[in-house]
Amino acid sequence: MLNQQSPLLVTGGAGFIGSHFVLDWFAAVDTPLVNLDKLTYAGNLRNLEPLAGRAGYTFVRGDIRDRALVDSLLRQHRPRAIVHLAAESHVDRSLVGPGEFLDTNVHGTFVLLEAARGYWQEMPAEDREQFRFLHVSTDEVYGSLKPGDAPFEETFAFRPNSPYAASKAASDMLVRAWHKSYGLPTVVTNCSNNYGPMQFPEKLLPLVLDRAIHGQPLPIYGDGMQVRDWLYVGDHAAALRVALERGKPGETYNIGGWNEQANLHTVTMLCALLDEMLPDSPHRPHARLMTSVADRPGHDRRYAINATKAERELGWRPRETFETGLRKTVRWYLDNQDWVEEVTSGAYRQWMETNYAGR
Ligand code: NAD
Ligand code: TYD
Description:
This protein is an alpha/beta fold. The chain has 13 helices and 13 strands. It has helices spanning 16-28, 67-77, 91-96, 99-121, 125-130, 163-182, 204-213, 233-246, 263-277, 308-314, 322-335, 337-343, 347-356; strands spanning 8-11, 33-37, 57-61, 81-84, 132-138, 186-191, 194-195, 218-221, 227-229, 231-232, 251-255, 260-262, 290-293. Bound molecules: nicotinamide-adenine-dinucleotide and thymidine-5'-diphosphate (TYD).
């Protein structure tokens, strides 16, 4: 029989959002959790060091596309839910090599759904009602907004523009179909851009922080007036926890920070915080390092989330403001330079060469 002590099976729990979700789970709920992660360049077990030796925490290195492995984990651990975060997640990488995005995000989600369906169909009826498949997705599936357009609602059509967004949209569609066709109790969340500690420095905020600290140019794609709706990662982790407990099967919830910012403004805020926290830096004022570079092809102009449904039905609201969240984030990167150095050695240098040399 499933009960509240039955474990969660989390995929991608060593990545940026996944590791915050796992840490938040043990802080807030503290019931067993199995973390399945392939440890790609984006997965980092250091993020989960606070859980070393923790009762109820199990890490398994493996691929979500490995059906035999997923089946055996479901048989062995009998989870009450799957929380699916594993993905290739960086738009620029998807432009350079889209194949891995389709393999992981689309085929990987298909394998998990099929394994979940087999496991779920064999349960007693009362367990079937309790089980959840929580699929963690992005607002990028909705495409790009114009300046006066209303923020994304759950009913909006999908208009993905990058290979990453298309692969996530395809996975969302599969999840929808597995609910409609087979009755699998799925819940989908579509969240806006996250920022916070432990984000891999290929994404805007940690990339800018790392480069500014070292006095290197800060690459601003195009005119820098693209708008993103930033959410502190801890608020996303909390939203996933409540979506798991209160989300209705078959429903989708948009998660966002009510926090639209143009990239230029975001980078200017980061530079001002560094000026304040590094009063002796020879690179002050850091904003001088901002450099316009060639734009990203197909670059989405604006994302904005209407999170009213999540607030109303899940009782969730973000707790951090952009100011408090950015301050925490900058402090963490300054205090954890060794974390950044570790993940930016080796293959990272090759990526920076591939993405920025020709711009
Ligand atoms: P991330 O790239 O930091 O982490 C992804 C994790 O998945 C890594 O630990 C990686 O090792 C693991 N992984 C990749 N392929 C795997 C496979 N085949 N099998 C098992 N594990 C695999 O990503 P993130 O930023 O933490 O995003 C997590 C999820 O949230 C993704 O599904 C992403 O689409 C979604 N999301 C991200 C954002 C954001 O701003 N970062 C916003 C909304 C939604
Ligand atoms: P990113 O963090 O890659 O997230 P996403 O593409 O999923 O929104 O980028 C955030 C914004 O910052 C996006 O508009 C692209 C822009 N950007 C730059 O201007 N320069 C950079 O070097 C990077 C990585 C992103």
